[in-house]
Amino acid sequence: MLAGLVLVRTFLSISLGVEINGHWPWEETRMAREKARAASDGSPATAEAAGCGTALKR
Q: How far, in Å, CA of 26 to CA of 22, rounded?
């Protein structure tokens, strides 16, 4: 019973995060890494320029 509640809570937490942020929770690390790489190269440091804006486009 408790395991079921934990799974439901985890699913709802992840889906709420996706709705609010527009990307999966584990993409934040990749996005930060690409943003830092773009900044060190002197190119625009936006998520769109790094190709991160295509994760969950509607």
A: 12
Please tell me the pTM assigned to this model.
0.52
Is residue 30 scored above 90 in pLDDT?
no
Size of the chain, expressed as the number of residues it contains: 58
The total domain count for the chain is: 1
pLDDT at residue 13 in the model:
95
Q: What is the average pLDDT across 25-31?
A: 85
All residues at 6 or more sequence positions from 6 whose CB lies less than 8 Å from its CB, including other chains: none
For residues 49-58, one letter each, b for 16 or more C-beta atoms within 10 angstroms of the residue's C-beta and e for the rest, the string is ebebeeeeee
What residues make up the domain containing 6?
1-41
